[in-house]
Design a protein that fits this description.
Blueprint: E1 3-9, E2 14-19, E3 32-41, E4 46-50, E5 55-58, E6 61-64
Antiparallel strand pairs: 1-2, 1-3, 3-4, 5-6
């Protein structure tokens, strides 16, 4: 199942995408420093980054918590 994930490479590049595993964001020769999950919050125009995909349902739909 694809999920919104991001990584930061050893070269300092930030990559995000809808992938099955974080390693799917790596290019040949890349090394990963870390990563997590992301969510676009369109009301304040923000990108939220978290270490875990914590999702809960509420009246407005899906609420991502960091």
């Amino acid at each position: 199942m694809t999920q919104p994930k991001f990584i930061i490479t050893l070269d300092g590049l930030f990559r995000l995408g809808m992938v099955n595993q974080h390693k799917d964001l790596l290019k040949p020769g890349d090394s990963c420093l870390g990563g997590g999950y992301y969510h676009f919050d369109y009301i304040p125009t923000a990108l939220s980054l978290t270490a875990h995909p914590t999702i809960s349902e509420n009246r407005s739909g899906i609420c991502w918590k960091s």
